[in-house]
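Form 12-C: Joint structure prediction
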Amino acid sequence: MLGVARGRAHLVNVVDRPLPKGKTEVNLSAFAFLFSELVQYFQTKVNNVNELERKLEEAGYGVGLRVLELLCHREKANRRETRLLGILTFIHSTVWKALFGKQADSLEKATTEEDEYMISEKELLVNRFISVPKDMGQFNCGAYVAGIVKGVLDSAGFPARVTAHFVPIEGQLRPRTTILIKFSPEVMLREQRMG
Amino acid sequence: MSTIYNIFVINKSGGLIYYKDFGSIAKLDTNDSLRLASVWHSLHAISSQLSPVTGCTGIELLEADTFDLHCFQTATGTKFFVTGETGAAGVDLLLKSIYELYSDYVLKNPFYEVEMPIRVELWDLNLATLIRQRERTSTGK
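Section 2 - Result
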């Protein structure tokens, strides 16, 4: 997200320059290869699938922290969402648009649990070129995106457990990816108090 | 009836890493497909050395009485080749598209080891779609 100095822009001191929107798109292939390399690197560092999932989550977590900081400044004039639904729509639309160039396909509330929300994506960008071998079970590289969501939520003051799952859809060969968000009890309590 | 009989992918050392047949003709068992792949690898290598033309990169098309064999070699030495009906058109384009699918769904997949047999779900799916599309357009006209 480094802005390239063009024309007169470089004459202005770097701290005085507005935080540029810049060109936020990168080549998909370049990203796919980098992400693939990241997963392969982690695979050499772990003993099982759960550890790999956690590693990916940790890698995404740092992205989440920074993305919240940047987007609050750039899109919301340094204001941050304090309500549960507010932060969820912020992730679903603003964060998703900044990271993947589009809004997430859907944001739903779980029917069974009060504190669970789901963001679903038919084809998650990080999973575009990835086929998980059968022997890795339900492993989903979306764990990285789950980490990003967790990073955003945590630093916004909404601690939550975030996981990525494959959910088969009827009549479709490929399952969709659902990011499951389970908020901590204190978040739900605070939300109730605020009415 | 399918105009493409089978598709082979061989790695740079001549080992068969992917084989699939389409339609009912010219089905090969595992041993035959492996044998054919390594024979073709050697033929291809020899042909490029024997060729009177300088800078020859090997056989691109073999025309037989009952089938045509089209071959495409990438810059890294991986070879894609398909056998199909004699005179089938647009096979060189098909090979390019197959190469594209290979670089997308096989090489960008973190769980695939290069030079090893290809067992990748998305590659299988997209390859099947590509062949289906081709058959539909060729029978549609």
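Section 3 - Comments
Chain B has three helices and five strands. The radius of gyration of chain B is 15 Å.
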